[in-house]
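Quick question: what would this complex look like in 3D?
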Amino acid sequence: MQHMANLNIPVAEREPAGAAHAKAAIEISDLSHVYAGAQGGVPALEDISMRVGSGRFVVIVGPSGCGKTSLLMMMAGLRAQSQGEIFCHGAPIRAPDPRRVGVIFQEASLFPWLSALDNIEFPLSLRGDPKDERRRRAEKMLELVGLGGFGERYPHELSGGMKQRVSIARGLVQDPPVLLMDEPFAALDEQTRMTMGHELLRIWSLTSKTVVFITHSLTEAVYLADEVLVMSARPGRIIDRIAIPLPRPRNYEMMATDVFGQLRERIWQQIRSDA
Amino acid sequence: MTLPKPVNVRRGMLVALLALWELVPGTGLIPELFLPSLSSTLTVLVKDWNIYLAAMWVTLYEVALAMVIACGGGIAAGALVGGVAHLRNLLLPVFSSLYAVPIVILYPIFTAWFGIGPESKIAFAGIYAFFPVMLSTVAGIRTIEPQFILAARSMGATLSQLITRVIIPASLPTVFAGLRLGGALAIIGVVVSEMLTAAAGIGYLVTLNRTILDSPRVFAALLMILTLSIAYYVLSRALERRMVVWQSVGRAPKADRSTSSVGVPVTAAA
């Protein structure tokens, strides 16, 4: 109990200096969603309100089936909510808009019939960019994610971690200010997962994107986030917002610190008390 | 001691089979009427080469048209039934159960409708081969990884881009498997229908010579059919390998040789 007493974690409502004037990257007010079911509607999301400041790294955690992936799909414009509006830099999101929002999926979303470079170029080719321009940007992205020289490989010739690097490059190639990531490292082994998380922070620090990241791993959440949002079991609500005051750049040694453990514990308590 | 390579074993078996075919009839163990020797079969094949070649052209023509009907119709119908939920719920059970019907029962009706010329063979073989092509096209579309569609939509793909850039390439491997099966069935359909009722074609030569107990000429016709099937198999495999590179390169990740488990290229780190 003693170490709980000197726990001094600020509850996050604060944003980086100056951000209060700028429009939030993502702003959601009173969003609810009800699934059509056989016996009437099933409430899936309830009164979700959140605000993600520009350039922030926000992680959403919550039990399986709490609707966090649905929420992310709504932010991406891939799914419609029953009620409420999602604003991205001031304008509502109602359909996928790759110039504003990039999405990075769990796994198996790279097209196996395209090489790594062609996969990264794919979104640019959809909008009809010229071939040499596409190639130039794709190669730049491949360098950024540390896979220079692997462009001609097909996905089945790449390891799990390398595939997710290509996915990240594909998400970044249209240069959207907001990146949504749906458990991107869930299929990787623990070691690769931590390396990839660290790698993601490096890429993030170079690109100044706003990131909304979903995960099941509390360690990953604390390690990556500026702020962790905890969701309840279905119907999903946001039951806690926890600021992560660890300095950046983050390093693996921080995981062994008391602060890290206490933050992780607090998230765990929230999830457990809700169950 | 190492085992011989499988491909060499297979070649050896083929040579042995041909040798047996040549030698066994000479021993008198099997009457020449049941199994004429390889050399007597080849002799009549060379002697009657013009007859066999003409028959082969008729068969090839019928097979080609039957394949066009089966593949074109099968892919179009499969795309509609696989892609549109209402049509799928309505029609898929119908098509699946029709697949179980021995379609050869339709052939007598087709000869009544289309005569005993090539038309009835084309119609019968076309329908016979239609079902596997259609059902595998449905399966190809239905088994597309949902993440592919979501990812493409999130990247701003329009419906037509979704179809041409994602759905078609993603379903190609399954569709190709169906096309290969459909093509083989088209050959079977044409040959069987020629054997039943016809006035031309390689299957007709089988039946004609069987009724006059001319075994070498029956076997010569069988040899032609065998050649046709093998040629078709080799061609379709080559075509498939060209079209679906990423499927045939093998599933084992080659990346291991230059990649560490954490996804960092070793070459880059060195």
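Answer marked as accepted. Chain A touches chain B through 48 residues (CB under 8 Å).
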